[in-house]
């Protein structure tokens, strides 16, 4: 919901949202609409009524980028990729013609390669420096900060969008939109984190200042292919273009048998999944509805493997005793830890709690609470 405080802004913001609707085409979820002040205050009672004239409501998508990333890696592995976690490229070696032919990966692997694709995001320059210490730096990292607030501040499935965020203090900003009888306290924040987004410039461009609008692909003289920048929205296009450039740069054209499959490739987990799959999980394993929905949404049809993992090997009890919530407020299941170790390249507790189960990003205290239990399960897995 976009709260609006000046009448002229109603058509302005509605037109902007309608443009989104049009650009989304048949992928659009719901059409955006104006919600009157009275209805908005009924729907969103915590909203401040002072000076409010109207609101515009539009639908936005949300995804679990940790699990999306893992599904992408597992899909690549299914199609022949070899993946490794926590392997840092520390040296690039070249043949007599100055072309890259070998990478030293800390600390156990030396990979003999046809080509190297640098996808190090905000750290892309580190690899470019290994290739050519005097290269022009391409990344200008931009820091983004998120805080998570409890869901009693807004109605279910609705949030507030501030179209003109200032660089001010975030909690102050939230307070300015909510009724004065809603006290937004610092201690209410469930988690806070900061990350680096790689804004990039093309090393081939004449000006060193201009940032590219979206992403850039560059092949160095020694054939280090760098892809940097971009958004989740365009990842398939970026991947397909990169593979196209790579096959040419690395002399692999003859290995392309029948064009590219990237655009329509289905990720692992999607083949046997339906929106009702969670009901099957409830019926088979007696799960709480919220847990079953979480597992179905996050792992798709891989959720069945999650239980194969624990039932067959580690949980001596049969239904219903294997049911066990790691955290009561957020639906998480202990089988997710074993599954992460066995199937999702997990090596550390932080891998599990932040990059697989997503707990640190949603509720930091819950993550700390289950920390010792996760350590125990991982210790058991790793002997
Ligand atoms: C807080 C935040 C919010 C964002 N929100 C959105 C959003 O809403 N929508 C959206 O589309 N985008 C969003 N982005 C941007 C998006 O997440 C990034 O564009 C994307 O993560 C960049 O992907 P990447 O693969 O290029 O880099 P990364 O995801 O940063 O991955 C780089 C990888 O390279 C590894 N690496 C680094 N150096 C080496 C080395 N020497 N050897 C081996 N590996 C190495 C790193 O460990 C890392 O795993 C957001 C970014 C941040 C930080």
From TrEMBL:
Entry keyword annotation includes Oxidoreductase: yes
Any single biological process term in GO: glycerol-3-phosphate metabolic process
Positions of the Alpha-glycerophosphate oxidase C-terminal domain: 261-383
One GO MF term: glycerol-3-phosphate dehydrogenase (quinone) activity
Limits of the FAD dependent oxidoreductase domain: 19-155
Keyword terms, alphabetized: FAD, Flavoprotein, Oxidoreductase
Cofactor(s) listed in the protein's UniProt record: FAD
RNA-binding as UniProt keyword: no
Top-level EC class as recorded in UniProt: oxidoreductase
InterPro entries: DAO_C (IPR031656), DAO_C_sf (IPR038299), FAD-dep_OxRdtase (IPR006076), FAD/NAD-bd_sf (IPR036188), G3P_DH_FAD-dep (IPR000447)
PROSITE patterns found in the cross-reference section: FAD_G3PDH_2 (PS00978)
Enzyme Commission identifier(s): 1.1.5.3
Gene Ontology CC: mitochondrion
Family that this chain belongs to: Belongs to the FAD-dependent glycerol-3-phosphate dehydrogenase family.
Protein name, per record: glycerol-3-phosphate dehydrogenase
Organism: Crucibulum laeve
Organism lineage: Eukaryota, Fungi, Dikarya, Basidiomycota, Agaricomycotina
